[in-house]
Amino acid sequence: MKYKVIIFDLDGTLLDTLEDLKNAVNHALILNNFPKRTIEEIRNFIGNGTKCLIKKSLPSGVDLKTYEIVYQDFINYYKEHNLDHTHPYQNVINLLEQLKRCGYKTAIVSNKNNDATKAMQQKFFPGLIDVAVGTKDFSKTKPNPETTLEVIKYLNVQKSDCVFVGDSEVDIETAKNASINCISVSWGFKNVEFLIKNGASIIIDEPLELIKYI
Q1: What is the pLDDT of residue 57?
Q2: What is the pLDDT, as a whole number, of residue 103?
Q3: 187-211 as b/e, with b when 16 or more CB fall inside 10 Å?
Q4: What is the mean pLDDT of residues 125-145?
Q5: pLDDT of 66-97, one tens digit each?
Q6: Integer Cα distance of 52 and 135 in angstroms
Q7: Chain centroid, CA 152 distance in Å
Q8: pLDDT at residue 129 above 90?
Q9: How many CB atoms lie within 10 A of CB 159?
Q10: What DSSP assignment string belongs to the chain?
Q11: 38 CB contacts (<8 Å, ≥6 apart)?
Q12: pLDDT of residue 14
């Protein structure tokens, strides 16, 4: 075993959450008389957490009070509708089951709200993920390594025992900031060309392909 711990991003890596995120963003925008965003625009806005997602989705020049109203409308809607279309990518469950059988520890580190992250872990991956951490009130979002280092400390392992698996430039930078290796995935929200331009050294095209690198 090259690694002992596999740390996964959530959105775009383990779960396809794009449709539900788009619907929640557009609900909040329409409610406040702003134009809707396309699914490709939402895809490009994802990565730095929901606060950044809403900021990018709003027209430039929106004041803070309006932003906070739109953000709260998004949160309220997404809380009730975050499982409408969300599902694991093909072979993700198979991969996690294989990792568990082989004795790997697994974790999720997400820029999604901490409660939502844990709820999705329990809904889709019961018994397959050892620890899941999202963004808390006072925690910094990826690419800040705070939550990644929290997981490493919780699992009581060395950085050299860990690898980060994610679909975006944010995950590449997070791994770098945490001083651990990174494996990028091509099935998520960013394409191969984009990942290479942003420093990806290993890119896999299918979940089970991860096995040969760990």
Answers
A1: 98
A2: 97
A3: bbbbeeeebeeeebeeebeebebbe
A4: 92
A5: 999 999 999 999 999 999 999 999 999 999 99
A6: 13
A7: 17
A8: yes
A9: 14
A10: ---SEEEE-SBTTTEE-HHHHHHHHHHHHHHTT-----HHHHHHHTTS-HHHHHHHHSPTT--HHHHHHHHHHHHHHHHHHTTSS-EEPTTHHHHHHHHHHTT-EEEEEEEEEHHHHHHHHHHH-TTT-SEEEEE-TTPPPTTSSHHHHHHHHHHT--GGGEEEEESSHHHHHHHHHHT-EEEEESSSSS-HHHHHHTT-S-EESSGGGGGGG-
A11: none
A12: 98
Rounded CA-CA distance 170/151 in Å is 17
Q: Which residue has the tokens 């990826």?
A: 142
Interval 106-118 mean pLDDT: 94
* Listed range (24-38, 85-99, 132-146, 164-178) with the worst mean pLDDT: 132-146
Task: Give the integer Cα–Cα distance in Å for 200 and 214.
Answer: 16
Report the C-alpha gap between 20 and 22 in whole angstroms.
5
Residues 70-102 as b/e (b if ≥16 CB within 10 A, e otherwise) read bbebbbebbeeebeeebebbeebeebbeebeee
- Backbone dihedral angles phi then psi of residue 130, each to the nearest 5 degrees: -75, -35
Is the per-residue pLDDT at 137 higher than 80?
no
